[in-house]
Write a structure and sequence with these properties.
Layout: H1 4-11, H2 16-35, E1 38-39, E2 48-50, E3 56-58, E4 65-66, H3 86-89, H4 97-112, H5 123-132, H6 145-154, H7 165-168, H8 172-176, H9 182-195
């Protein structure tokens, strides 16, 4: 079925309910990676694939990193910078919470149809925008309060305030949209694809 960036360009913003079910599957993958002590480090819409069975797959592990233990930190600057968490952009040590930030940016982009920050022509200007501006939020009045809360948790500039994937799997936004298990989220996405 291609990547979610392709889906975005072909059909426009992804409806909130379907996006919640796709997010559930992505969080499932991130929770698995954490159990295996791995960071993905390049989460973006083009690295999220969806197939006709409704399965969302996280791909491109070219810059993933294995950590020695669950509290270890990385310190390298790899991946697609416009989806990097503020701590990564600043070359500070980072851990699993950096992937949660990247996922939050992806979800917001897929929901609204556009990348959440202004697209500056120079990398340094974009980095400054990410560091100096407030964290992006969904446009007021367009999404459910649960979605706004979920995005707020993912895009908290303080990595210590971002919830881990295994906790986010239980979020009210996912529950509200029927993403209550991996199998159910796959079935819900498959049903949406079949209706198109």
């Amino acid at each position: 079925g291609g990547s979610l960036s392709n889906a975005l360009s072909q059909i426009g913003p992804i409806p909130e309910a379907e996006l919640a079910n796709m997010t559930y599957q992505t969080l499932w993958a991130l929770a698995y990676l954490k159990r295996e002590k791995r960071l993905h480090r390049d989460i973006k819409p083009s690295n999220l694939l969806v197939n006709s069975r409704g399965e969302v797959k996280l791909t491109d592990f070219g810059v993933s990193k294995e950590l020695n233990n669950s509290i270890a930190m990385c310190g390298t600057f790899v991946g697609t910078f416009k989806y990097m968490a503020p701590e990564r952009v600043q070359s500070l040590p980072y851990s699993y919470q950096a992937d949660i930030w990247s996922l939050g940016l992806c979800i917001l982009e897929l929901a609204t149809g556009r990348y959440p920050y202004p697209m500056d022509s120079a990398c340094i200007e974009m980095v400054q925008t990410i560091l100096e501006s407030d964290a992006p939020k969904p446009p007021a009045g367009h999404f459910s309060p649960e979605f706004e809360e979920f995005i707020g948790v993912c895009l908290n500039k303080d990595p210590k305030q971002r919830l881990p994937a295994e906790v986010l799997l239980q979020s009210p936004w996912l529950q509200r949209n029927g993403a209550t298990s991996y199998g159910q989220s796959v079935a819900n996405v498959a049903s949406w694809i079949a209706s198109m």
